[in-house]
Sequence to fold (168 residues):
Amino acid sequence: MISEEEVDRRIQEIGEQISRDYAGEQVHLVCVLRGGSFFMCELSKRITIPVTLDFMSVSSYGNDTKSSGVVRIVKDLDDPLKDKHVIVVEDVVDSGRTLSYLLEMLKKRDPKSLKLCTLLDKPERRVVNVKVDYTGFEIPDKFVVGYGLDYAQKYRNLPYIGIVEFDD
Ligand code: IMP
Ligand code: MG
Fold:
């Protein structure tokens, strides 16, 4: 669906945009594991202002392609968010359930600011309203893999975004 070159180019642009938007400041990137990790690493390399990183893991999907609507914190952040310019980095915003829950929870930790950056956005699939501040690509309602996104934990390592075709 999206080639390695296209993804790289877009991440470069987002990195430059974040560096401009937060010029003179420092940003704290919060990666939502596991899918957000590939994107966060590449993005952080292209940000030219000081960056710190932390990781958390929530689960709303099993080895399935449908949201259960249940969000569970599997691994919390190591560092506090208080007075930091926080950017949550996700692989994809789909129904929005995971992110709306997560952002509400992180807001209570008193960051100086809180934004959301996602590699992919599927606006057609939205069930819960979520404000996305930085989007790599808006994509149609298709199940995709690669660049961190998995199907049953596989294909995360593909360097491009591919569509999974299911037999009906
Ligand atoms: P949401 O809570 O429905 O927005 O789901 C977000 C999570 O669902 C993402 O972080 C992914 O882990 C997973 N997900 C949603 N769509 C896809 C997809 O097309 N491929 C792989 N994982 C997906
Ligand atoms: Mg995810």
User: Anything to note?
Assistant: Strands lie at 27-33, 51-59, 72-75, 85-93, 113-121, 134-138, 144-145, 162-163. The pocket of magnesium ion (ligand 2) is lined by residues 32, 35, 91 (CB under 6 Å).
